[in-house]
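Blinded run. Sample ID left blank on purpose so nobody reads anything into the name before looking at the predicted structure. Input follows.
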Amino acid sequence: MTEARKVPLLNVANILTMARLALVPVFLFSLFEAGGFDTTWRLIAFGIFAVASFTDHIDGTLARKHGLITDFGKIADPIADKALTGSALVGLSILDVLPWWITITIAVREVGITLLRFWVIRYGVIPASRGGKAKTLAQVIAIGLFVLPQNDVLEVIAWAIMAVALVLTIVTGIDYVIRAFKMKARAGRAVL
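Blinded prediction complete.
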């Protein structure tokens, strides 16, 4: 009988997740520097946002490929994603680039699903669904486009992708709620 390999908490996937969290204040500083509309600083903010967003793809791929999945990573990864996208949305709303209702809609869904995951964690971890991953990708692309210095064409594309992101945000939020209640119900039946 072999003992299951213990995955160290300090591994490359978790380090990338923590790096993403550390980039959030650096991104915000760049976004707001020089009044928030300086072309150079907006390009720097976009670069930081793009690098931080890309670490989300890399850390997940490395964790799955090399068996580095940890309970910490399962919880910290979505929190890091929400911190990055949430801070970007709030920043863009403060700058009047995005209406507050969009930021609030996405934030309520993200915080609600994170709390829901914690509520059912004793029954299991709700993994990200394909729809959830598509939602994250659409949000990241739309936010990134809004961070860039705007022109008419870019603005139209950004709004179109943000519309898709909003639909996916709502639909996948409902899906997570259904999955959480099913998981809790299954766990309740298993106890009986």
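Unblinding after everyone has recorded impressions. The radius of gyration is 18 Å.
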